[in-house]
Amino acid sequence: MTPERWTLVRDAVERARKSRWYGRTLAAARLEEPGDFAALPFTSKQDVMAASPFELLAVPPAHAWHYHESSGTTGKPVATWCGLTELARMASIIIDAVPELGADEAMLLNRFPSFAPVHFLMEEVLRRTGRCHIAAGSMSWDVPFGRALEFMRQLPVSVLATLPFEMVLLREAGRELGVDVTRECRHLKAVLLGGAVLPPTFKKWIADAWQVRVVEIYGSNETMLLAISCPQGGLHVATDLFEHEILDPVSMQPVPAGSPGLLTITSLVHEVMPLVRYVTGDLVERSPTPCPCGRKSPTIRVLGRASEVIEMRGRTLAAGTALTPAALVDACYEFIAAVGARIFFAVILKRGIELLVETTPEKPATTALEEVRLAERLGVPVTVRWLPDGDVFDRAALFRTPKIYKPGQVSDWRGDGRKTITVMEALLEWPKFGLGTLGGIVKREIKNARRRKKLAATDR
Ligand SMILES: [Zn+2]
To answer: Same structural domain for residues 160 and 187?
Structure first.
């Protein structure tokens, strides 16, 4: 650590001490010289959860610009406070990496969920470039898949920001509606994808299917932007925002470049909710060579959450040989590209991986070679099941979300409009299904229940 860097880190840790949590845990911490940094205690995800919502806050609550929470599906929700200053720093990093956002004709369709901080990071980017923002979070019923697709056909949307898998869903929604997305969403130049692993073959699949440049944006609710890919494709760590360490999951000592380790970060510019040696829980691997783009910051590959690695057949996280979520997704996309399939769903069982692959119109003639190659790549037993069109992904379900109206207590029956008689009826209108669709849903549910039972029975 250079003396200048150490000054930054020391000041950041001092700022963090203003929160109740770090005021307590770092009370006795020595901050005399760079060597003291490695002796500071780690902050775990559980710590952040336990400290939610106020303990990590280093300013009065009203001085934070935004408050967010995780969904809390796996326990207590994790609170995230963010400030306008750090958001502005992050926005300028994105503008530098994605020139498409500053272009004269730039228009962004922002599908990041609106309760996720990244949604507002995109808002800040556009505030700074002065370009047009269509704020349409994917979790909102206001803009379901079909409508998002309509925006891209009718408006000159040049950049789309969303979760990687939504690129698959939108394309399939297009197929259902008879829309060729590469031809009809012709203004789209780049997609900004984050929130899940995006290994090379998946990235290539999206770039080919949509004929766009794919930009990877990596971060989390607690940290927001951690890295973004440059025009040459290198995922650069935002070293201006964080001091980062990549640590062995067992010894918690630094790993050499090219080896997977836990990304651990210390906020350098965050003033609202600064984190010190926060163990993100994500496995990343630092490239041993500099990026050809010339940027000084190191590049990483994100391998997925350490808690989600697949340990099987003697392959373990401790030995650095576990199958990572990114490797699984990467191999599956390579596989479906090789056999000409459209979509897959992977089930991780005790005995191996069951890969459900949907084919159109039917299973390709020879795929045995690809299946062997897939199993070899993954290093765990794989069973591929070929399913008919619609069995892995019921595309019509994308259009079965309700239409939302304004909350209200008055219904005017005089015109041609809907004649509602309850508040909920006035608020939501579910699409009407014919008996054929209803029968199809019931049949599908029965088929899925049988398949699930059979699969579970084979994995005792
Ligand atoms: Zn680069």
So the answer is: yes
Note down the domain range covering 171: 84-307
- My answer on whether 208 and 283 are in the same domain is yes
Among the listed residues 111, 99, 90, 52, the one whose alpha carbon sits nearest the alpha carbon of residue 224:
90
Regarding whether 321 and 243 lie in a shared domain, the answer is no
- Of 187-201, 384-398, 444-458, which gets the smallest average pLDDT? 384-398
The CATH number of whichever domain residue 264 belongs to comes to: 3.40.50.12780
Distance 221 CA to ligand 1 centre (A): 24
Same domain, 247 and 347: no
The structure tokens listed for 285 are: 């691997």
CA distance 240 to 90: 9
Q: What is d(CA 297, CA 310) in angstroms, rounded to the nearest whole number?
A: 30
Dist. CA 295 → ligand 1 center (Å): 6
Split into its structural domains, the chain has a count of 3
Residue 273 lies in a domain: yes
H-helix segments, 396-434: 423-427
Same domain, 375 and 432: no
How close is the Cα of 98 to the center of ligand 1, in Å? 12
Report the share of the chain in percent with pLDDT over 70.
Answer: 98
User: 437 near 400, Cβ under 8 Å?
Assistant: no
- Kindly report, residue by residue over 168-222, the tens digit of the pLDDT: 999 999 999 999 999 999 999 999 999 999 999 999 999 999 999 999 999 999 9
For residue 226, how far is its CA from the centre of ligand 1 (angstroms)? 15
Whole-model pTM? 0.94
How many Å apart are CA 81 and CA 89, to the nearest integer?
Answer: 16
